[in-house]
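FAQ: What does a multi-protein file look like?

Like this. Sequence, then tokens, then the next protein.
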Amino acid sequence: MQRLNLTIDETLYEQARAFSFVEKRPISQIIRDSLSEYFERHGETKQKAELLLDAKDKAEVLDIIKNDSFVSNDEFKKKFNL
């Protein structure tokens, strides 16, 4: 697991603290669950992010970003009959 330091406004913090108390779950778990749900709702962006994570080196990452050449593995296989 990675440690993350973030800053949120006081109102949002108080809401998180109240949810944490009511649900008897740590705020960190609520944030992890919220991020997971957010990623699932943004499928196209998630797919692009996965391509960046799968890139072999910095040059490939920069090329993907520069050209916005995001193609899923399934699309690639279909295009080239693989």
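And here is the next protein:
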Amino acid sequence: MPSRLLTASTAVAAIHLALAGAAFSSPVTGEGPPGSVDEELVRMGREIPGFGGLFYDAEGYPTVYLLNPRDRTALSSLKSLGPEVRVRQGSFQFEQLVEWRHALRPALALPGVVSLDADEARNRVVIGLDATSPEKSLNRDRLEQEILSTGVPRQAVLLIETTAAEPLTGLQSKLRPAPGGVQILFPISPPTYGVCTLGFNAFRGSTFGFVINSHCTGVMGETDGQRYLQSLPPDGTIGTEIADFPFFTGSPCPPDRRCRYSDSAFAKYDNPRLGALGKIARPSSVDPELGPLTLKPVSARFTLTGRIGSPLTGDIVHKVGRTTGWTYGTVVATCVDRGSAGTDMFLLCQSEVRGGAGPGDSGSPVFYRLPGNKAKLVGILWGGRTDSNLGLVYVFSPLENIEMELGPLRIN
């Protein structure tokens, strides 16, 4: 057997050349958009007698269905696809399958019918039924009647159980009202934007807003009225920075250094309805280093039931950030005075966690997970490092340090 890499690369080039060549032959009035796979396969079928579809098999070989696998004209036409093409016995021409798919589209309106495809790998029209539907048998009966009414040959139609596709909304998507743990942007020099994570929503006095990292503002340690967007620039701004504690010098700060106790700032929502108090986005699963960003369902949230003091070494905490999603890890150090790389800044009495984090996760809420998707807040992440023994380590400012600088915060 030839190398799969060589086979695949050679076949891909040959197939795309063949498709491109077919595109210059005759126009296709089909149901797919110009350039779609179905449109291009229909074009191929008009030049290859008895063509029923083209796909890659499990071993990586290009495979073609032909109504007559011994048809010399058809086999000669396949030479342009390369020497490794495999031929299977087909029952239907692909162009006919596309026409039947169009005829069956009204069936998509039936409850429990979730997909319809002219399947080039099965040489059938494939209709997908929702495997989770409580009316599965009833839907199948109605579907059989619909197929019969169209005149499409029943043997050309394959019914399979599948599931409905769900929108893959995630931590980088537009979410209203915005929970903690989702993407925020701030203009640096448009069209260039900084990317961070919204920490948590809170009331500062009577003002409703959200806590973010100070280094995710225009100038760290200065209240400069930085504007924030959630998700992408077209989605508009959601808030304005109104509090950012200044650095201090002198004891207990090391000589010739500037210090703070937290990397935090507070932004006021433009409209209180833009934020969700006491909520953190909950991705579909968790991993120590790299979790998914998808929210399933879109409304999945952790509910903050309160706060907890700085965790002890050995405790397990969780975080949600727009880059590495939902991760968890062990606290490996507490009340550490940690410098910020390449600056004269030190953050005093910070906590460190062995766990996944990446660029853009700055601001991620750090919390204890409780049963029932509840949580207690412990702080926000601001930095990370790689330790030769521990691997990935992130640093966060405990909530009590944040309140030392921003004042009391109501988080739920």
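Q: Is there any per-entry metadata?
A: Some entries carry free-text notes. For the entry above: Residues 20 and 268 are 55 Å apart (CA to CA).
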